Amino acid sequence: MKTRIYCCGCQRGVSARLTDGAEIYRHRKDLARLPFWKCDTCGNHVGCHHKTSTPTKPLGAIPTPELKRARSYIHDILDPLWKRKLVTRAYVYSRMASALKLQAYHTAEIRSVEEARIAYRAAQAIARSVDPKGNAK
Question: Distance between CA atoms of 112 and 70, rounded to whole angstroms?
């Protein structure tokens, strides 16, 4: 099966191929059955919303390894805010959308390192605006 997905490495929409974790992460048996979309041109891949009613829906744009790391750094800032129940996840994503002038925000839609830098700075500002007791400053 194939679908059109934006590939950050190729910098265009590509006809990505549905595959599984056995191909993508050969050394990770725990990921073997999970679905992934792969760009056969550059070899980059993106996971799927496998725990939902649309298990092969891509999580977002296909990132480069550098962009994947950058997205992870953003999650490292934002996720503790809602996981520790300092604020809601909806609040965090709403603030990110507002800071980035987007209708909605999702880290997986960041398509360039420059976009990631902007999102990273916005995430830092949001984290600074929430005190350890969960009150927005």
Answer: 9
Confidence at 6, pLDDT banded by 50, 70, 90: very high
Amino acid at position 115, single letter: E
How many residues in total does the chain contain?
A: 137
Q: Which residues of 77-104 are buried (b: 16+ CB within 10 A; e: fewer)?
A: bbeebbeeebbeeeebbebbeebeeeee
- How far is the C-alpha of 121 from the C-alpha of 127, rounded, in Å? 10
Q: What is the pLDDT of residues 69-119, one digit of tens each?
A: 999 999 999 999 999 999 999 999 999 999 999 999 999 999 999 999 999
Say if residue 16 is exposed, middle or buried (CB neighbours under 10 Å; 0-12, 13-18, 19+).
Answer: buried
The predicted model scores a pTM of 0.87
- Would you give the distance in Å from CA 91 to the centre of its chain? 17
DSSP letter assigned to residue 89: H
Average pLDDT, the chain: 94
DSSP bridge partners of 13: 6
Predicted pLDDT at 134:
54
